[in-house]
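Reopening this one. Same input as before:
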Amino acid sequence: MNAVNTLKEYLRFPSVSTDSNYSDGMQGARNYIREQLETLGFSVKNIETALHPILLAERHGNPKWPHVVLYGHYDVQPADPFELWSSGPFDPEVRDGRIYARGAADNKGPTIVHMTALQRVLKKHPNLPLNITYVIEGEEEIGSPSMRKFFDDYAERISQADFMLVSDTGSPNTKQIVITTALRGLVDLEIKVTGAKVDLHSGIHGGAVYNPLQAISEICASLHNPDGTVNVPGFYDGIDPIEDWERIQLERYPESLESYKAMLGVPEFAPCGKLSPLEAVRFGPTLEFNGMGGGYQGEGSKTVIPSEVFAKITCRLVDGQDPAIIQDKVIATINDRCPKQVKLNVRRGAVAPAYLVIPPDRSNTPKQQPAALANAFRSVEVAITNCFGQEPIYLREGGSIPVIADFKQRAGLDAIMVGLFTPIDNLHAPDESFDLDLMNKAIATFEEVFVSISNSQYD
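Same output, byte for byte:
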């Protein structure tokens, strides 16, 4: 298997899950990756869903062998705006040591890394004592809706595994790899505030009617304290303190506050309570406003008091916070603070729990951590150090991958998440790319990992 050529062919399929116009590309990508798995000797099942099928592939032998689940997704984000790409988003091109195409880093490149490593290991060790299950879905970029039914049907089957390996997270650069230890959970909601039954003339009615724009601004402004913390009673209940070892790991991250500020292009950071900005994006929960609207939006002015306005709100949660309870608390707070002169309507959106896994030999490592998971963490750390020349950093991630927490809740599987994309890879943006030197080192890393974990057996 030539990794670059294999990846090029995979990238040619425009597998955009959110747009039905790309159904042929979705099918093509799925069939292509199925062929690769079958070539490696996997038994592959195409699990039909209401939208895009899931691939479940298995290479099983002795039940006493170590058993790993590899997770990935074959869908990608839309490529728009097309005019900002330097080359066709689905016509992969190698330039200056990088391969450019939509999905190169998220998640087709990492998928080919795993498969190429397996192909090389199996060529040397055709009887490798390692049970492997692949789960490759086609809806990660739209929230993995079909995975719920998948877990209903297959959670018991995949729960026989020891742990998961995932490469759908990031690292700071191509030399310093991060093993992600946490993903934030998510709460989504939208509020609508309504005043009069129609827009009103602000001269004739202004002063008598409570303006919904003012009301929603007051509500939203009340949800944070001056120090930046979330002003919702009970919001921080259940959160454990940050461990010293985690702060020490963050200090190894090759980014300063000034370089972070320059990258973002902001004049100053927001207040973050007792956390630094670099800590806040990894260790703390948030409440953010993702969109607000109401009233006249066109050029010039139109002197109206709008009838209805809205605000879209999401919370990113950390371990210890129950997303359903947090959603209830935020909504109760909004209801309590809404002026009585207007009407409030709340849309409850999706919720997803946070995920946390602790590597072995730490102050807060669970006493009953499975030996297979601990061994795999050590194997991955050694392999990364050998192939990249320096030890990985163990860090929490600010983003959310809800399906990882679902694997834990539904199948009892913890995930070792090795970050293979970097900030300059332009995920979800024009000119997405994947560094080929990182790709080759990552392939060597996973070759070493697969051999190492196959050499350990547990009763």
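So the earlier flakiness isn't reproducible anymore. For the record, The first strand starts at residue 43 and ends at 47.
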